[in-house]
Amino acid sequence: MALLGLVLAAGCAAAADTSVDHVQADVVFSQEMITHHQQTIQLAEVAAERGKSSYVRDLSKKLIAEEKADIEMMSSWLRSWKEPLPPEPTTQMGSELRAGPDFDRQWLKELTGHLEHGVQMAEAVSKAGKHGPTLELAGKVIQAQKAELADIAEHAG
User: Fold this and answer.
1) CATH assignment of 20-156?
2) What is the pLDDT of residue 157?
3) How many whole angstroms separate alpha carbon 29 and alpha carbon 19?
4) How far is it, in rounded angstroms, from Cα 71 to Cα 37?
């Protein structure tokens, strides 16, 4: 009877193990999106320091918090899959943007291109991925970044 309990417990543990429920597309997405999010944080940190409008400064703070949470989640998936975490980006995104009256417009333009790329990455894993939480995150990224792009277009207009 005790052996049956152990077998059943082992079966339940295996069923709860999500590490077997992923494909290479899920791994690549997490690795590349972590780097992408790190770059977003770098770009947002520049705006937090140099931004003129409250819109740009508030958006930068919001992006930093959201991206850090996503990085932590994707990092935990990669560790559970025994996959390497990507290295920190070597170049400082947004460092070429100079403080001044035109900073906000330049920053919003650079951020727009960056967010559009994030949407493309999320759409790609939505088609090829298998890991449920990765697909949920991809859907969240698509929805949130498209909303941010629409909001940016309104404010930049």
Assistant:
1) 1.20.1260.10
2) 63
3) 15
4) 7
